[in-house]
Design a protein that fits this description.
Layout (H helix, E strand, L loop, with lengths): L4 H42 L3 H14 L3 H13 L3 H13 L5 H17 L1 E8 L4 E4 L8 E2 L2 E5 L2 E8 L6 E7 L4 E7 L6 E7 L4 E4 L2 E5 L2 E4 L3 E8 L6 E7 L9 E6 L6 E7 L5 E4 L2 E5 L6 E4 L1 E8 L5 E8 L4 E5 L20 H38 L7 H37 L9 E7 L2 E8 L2
Parallel strand pairs: 1-7, 8-14, 15-21
Antiparallel strand pairs: 1-4, 2-3, 2-5, 5-6, 8-11, 9-10, 9-12, 12-13, 15-18, 16-17, 16-19, 19-20, 20-23, 22-23
Helix pairs in contact: 1-2, 2-3, 3-4, 4-5, 6-7
Length: 458
């Protein structure tokens, strides 16, 4: 295949034009990006955001290097008191042969004289990474620790801040030509503890030390603590808590406690033969004689005494707060006749008959309830059968089944209840006459009015 020289030249020209256009477009893009970065740096510098301005100028110089950018970066570093770096960039700018070479040389000479009188200040914090400001915390931080700076002689304060730690301030006295090392251990922020109690006014103790009253809101040391709330008339509230750096002003550690009123107690003295088991409200408290009187919550209490032979005595006693109640009991078979002996050691036959009769009655009542439910369901079934859209549908079948099941349950329960009641009646008849012991009820005055005290033996 033979290619004409004219065609070959045309192709080369086309490729050249295309390549030139691509390069030109790329150059224009770099130029636009560099200008945008420069404009961003200039705006930041005018607003005193030196670190941001320096970063923008460095980006612009990286995209499209230019000696003027060296001068811009040097000016920012000079404003940031980083004179050695600023001086180095001014010298690089001077080497490029700028039009303002004389002024640049004057600036270099000025900075060299200034640096001779400056001091080197090394700022270190534990932990590192703290932002710092000179004078007062305003605007963007001057830098981040660790940092080495050249500063003019004189007195100045430095403010350090790091998330999770308390803001710290150090006053510096900088001497000309000296090196000053500043080492600072930052204190962690103390967690915020908020305590609410119902009722309010409870004394707050942390690890046994009183720190205030509820409602309470205060920064305390982090870690594990034992919290205690005290208020007269209420039981102490004890609670372990753990406070961490996450418990800040926005997300404090909140404790909400409802105090429980203290239970008023009285004393019960039991005068009875030795060896009797004592039960109060069904709880075994020991055997007579007790080493000390019983301390019981205020109110009406059921007292029971049981002998080893099986006889038992029961009575109701009223306990009054702060007072001593004495009861004298002579149990049958132990030298007295306060109650009759029950050789069974448990409920009598008459008692069992009451239990069985009650069970039968409950079953009959349950059967009656199911019967009422069956009648109600039957009415719904009749309504369904009279409605054209319900008769001969699954709804009619379901209602019919409900009537049958409830009616069957009613029959079963009533039948079972009658059988059980019959057994109870038989036990009642076979148990004989009730004990001759006479129950008694006595009205006893109390602080709030009066209480009924009953005595029964079985």
């Amino acid at each position: 295949m033979c290619i004409r020289p004219q065609s070959f030249i045309a192709v080369l020209l086309a490729l050249g034009v295309l390549a030139f256009g691509t390069v030109a477009w790329a150059q224009e893009d770099l130029q636009a990006r560099a200008k945008a970065a420069f404009a961003q740096g200039k705006e930041a510098l005018e607003q005193g955001r030196f670190a941001e301005a320096l970063a923008a100028y460095e980006e612009a110089n990286l995209i499209k290097p230019h000696p003027v950018m060296l001068k811009n970066m040097a000016q920012v570093l000079e404003a940031m008191a980083q004179l050695p770096r600023a001086l180095s960039l001014y010298r690089q700018y001077l080497d490029s042969g700028p039009k303002d070479a004389d002024k640049t040389q004057e600036k270099i000479t000025e900075l060299e004289k200034l640096l001779a009188s400056y001091a080197t200040v090394e700022l270190q914090t534990q932990p590192t990474g703290a932002h710092f400001w000179f004078g007062a915390k305003s605007g963007e931080p001057f830098g981040t620790t660790p940092a080495t700076l050249n500063l003019p002689p004189g007195k100045v304060s430095v403010v350090f801040e790091k998330p999770g730690f308390q803001v710290a301030t150090r006053a510096l006295n900088i001497s000309s030509g000296k090196t000053l090392k500043v080492e600072l251990a930052l204190n962690p922020l103390m967690p915020l503890l908020v305590i609410r109690s119902n009722p309010v006014g409870a004394i707050v103790l942390l690890d046994g030390k009183e720190i205030g009253k509820t409602p309470f809101s205060q920064a305390v040391m982090g870690g594990e603590h034992q919290l205690e709330l005290r208020k007269p008339g209420f039981a102490p509230h004890l609670q372990p808590i753990e406070l961490t750096a996450q418990h800040t002003v926005r997300t404090p550690a909140i404790v909400e406690a409802t105090l429980v009123a203290e239970v008023a107690v009285g004393t019960l003295v039991i005068d009875a033969a030795a060896g009797l088991e004592i039960r109060v409200d069904g709880q075994v408290m020991g055997r007579t004689p007790l080493g000390a009187p019983l301390s019981l919550a205020e109110g009406l209490r059921r007292l029971e005494l049981h002998s080893p032979s099986g006889s038992a005595h029961q009575e109701m006693v009223t306990i009054t707060a702060g007072q001593v109640t004495t009861t004298r009991i002579e149990l049958a078979g132990t030298g007295g006749d306060a109650s009759t002996s029950d050789s069974g050691g448990g409920p009598s036959g008459r008692t069992w008959s009451y239990i069985i009769l009650g069970t039968g009655g409950a079953l009959v009542l349950a059967g009656g309830a199911f019967g009422a439910m069956a009648l109600s369901a039957s009415g719904e079934l009749d309504d369904c059968r009279s409605a054209a859209d319900c008769q001969r549908t699954s709804g009619e079948s379901d209602k019919a089944e409900s009537v049958r099941s409830k009616a069957m349950m009613s029959d079963v329960l009533i039948g079972a209840g009658l059988i059980v009641a019959g057994v109870g009646a038989a036990v009642y008849i076979m148990s004989g006459e009730p004990s001759a012991a006479t129950p008694s009820i006595t009205l006893v005055p109390t602080s709030g009015g009066a209480a009924a005290v009953g005595t029964v033996s079985f």
